[in-house]
Every structure is written in C-alpha cells, then in structure tokens.
C-alpha cells in the first residue's frame, strides 16, 4: 500500500484524539450555519479557510468548478448536495467559493475557445460550466493575457452560480447567497488564503457592496465589473 495511506491514517488518529468530545452535540443531527460550495482543487482548504474546527458548523460541498448545478432528465437543477441543508436542516446561508487559477474554469475557457478533448466524466463537468461561461468569454476585455482572462472568468463563474441559486424556486428568498474568491496566487491585494467577497445576493458592484456592508468593506473586491 502507498505510504500516503499510512500517513493519512496516522494523522486521522491525531484528529480523533483532538476532536473526540467535539461531536457530543451533533451525534444525532446537524443544523449547519452555512453550506459552502467549493472547488475540489487540493489547494482549496474548505474548513481551514474559515478557521472552522467545530463539527456541524459547515455543510461542505466540492466539485470541479464549484458548481451548484446538476443535469437531470428534466433539465438543469440545483444540485442535491447543495440543496439538502437548505431544504432539510434549516441552513439559511449559501456561499459559492471560487478560487484563483481554477483548472475547471481554465479547461472550460479552452473548450470554448479551441475545443477540448477530456475523459467523459471531466467532459460532462465542463459541459455543465460551458453554457454559463460562454457569454463571459465573449465579454472579456481586450488585451488580457491568459491568466488575467481566467481569473476574471473565475469571478464570472461565481456570479453565475449565485444567479442559479437566486433564481431557483427550491431556494427560499430568505437564504443569503454569497459569492467569494479564495486567493492563493497573489491576484488580489491581501494575504494568500484570504477570501474576497465578489457577490452578495446578486449585487456585484464593489461600491454598492461596500456601502451596504461597511463592516466588511476591506474584504469586498473584484477584478472585473462588467455589464450584465
């Protein structure tokens, strides 16, 4: 067996020793404060980015491209793993977490620009993102290099996923929906690993968001403010 497995099991032993009593209040049920939809990129630390060490606080979902959507026989719907805590555990905050240099956004960009051949599973995931990013690719400002284009599309993808949640009849209006970008590539001003708020309940204007949420104005930022 690969040594990695042994190392992971040893770290789990340490985890179990540390967390032994932290499950006392959630063994029989959960009422998470928020559902987070992150990219499954190994550099995106879903709980650590929020400093979370409390079981039951966050309902974490992950897939390539931080998608809130899935395809069914009846068409595109909000993914069940995202919807479950909203529908069944009283969760009233949903956070879509994109990240700088996203490989799924990059692959979708390449697919829309040049076409792309991937294994069927990856192709399916890219196919879910592509319709939502197509207009963004066409709207990108002239003169951007590849990395600049990708990181603007990261924001655009977060906006589109927020929009899907806001427009879904399955997501109550009472749910606060936030879009953020996790930066570990020095793209935004700030420390590596900081989360930058780019969208709250569909509002994308940095000026409007900073006016409405002055307590977090230093965490609100965008690379790209585009016309709808």
UniProtKB/TrEMBL annotation:
Residues annotated for Zn(2+) binding in this entry: 39, 99, 102
Keywords assigned: Lyase, Metal-binding, Zinc
Cofactor, free-text remark: Binds 1 zinc ion per subunit.
Cofactors that this protein relies on: Zn(2+)
Catalytic activity: hydrogencarbonate + H(+) = CO2 + H2O
SMART domains in the cross-refs: Pro_CA (SM00947)
Molecular function in Gene Ontology: carbonate dehydratase activity; zinc ion binding
Annotated EC: 4.2.1.1
InterPro entries linked to this entry: Carbonic_anhydrase, Carbonic_anhydrase_sf
KW Lyase (keyword) present: yes
Keyword Transmembrane helix attributed: no
Family: Belongs to the beta-class carbonic anhydrase family.
PANTHER family, alphabetized: CARBONIC ANHYDRASE
Protein name: carbonic anhydrase
């Amino acid at each position: 067996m690969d040594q990695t497995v042994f190392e992971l099991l040893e770290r789990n032993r340490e985890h179990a020793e540390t967390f032994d009593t932290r499950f006392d209040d959630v063994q029989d049920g959960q009422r998470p404060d928020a559902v987070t939809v992150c990219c499954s990129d190994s550099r995106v630390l879903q709980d650590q980015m929020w400093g979370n060490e409390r079981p039951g606080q966050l309902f974490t979902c992950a897939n390539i491209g931080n998608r809130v959507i899935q395809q069914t026989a009846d068409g595109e719907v909000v993914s069940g793993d995202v919807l479950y805590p909203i529908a069944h555990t009283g969760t009233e905050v949903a956070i879509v977490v994109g990240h700088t240099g996203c490989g799924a956004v990059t692959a979708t960009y390449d697919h829309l620009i040049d076409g792309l051949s991937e294994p069927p599973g990856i192709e399916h995931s890219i196919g879910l993102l592509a319709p939502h990013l197509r207009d963004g690719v066409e709207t990108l400002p002239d003169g951007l290099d590849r990395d600049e284009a990708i990181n603007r599309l990261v924001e655009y993808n977060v906006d589109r996923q927020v929009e899907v949640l806001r427009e879904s009849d399955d997501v109550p209006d009472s749910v606060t929906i936030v879009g953020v970008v996790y930066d570990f590539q020095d793209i935004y001003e700030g420390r590596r690993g900081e989360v930058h708020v780019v969208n709250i309940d569909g509002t994308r204007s940095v000026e409007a968001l900073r006016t409405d949420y002055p307590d977090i104005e230093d965490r609100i930022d965008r690379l790209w403010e585009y016309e709808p």
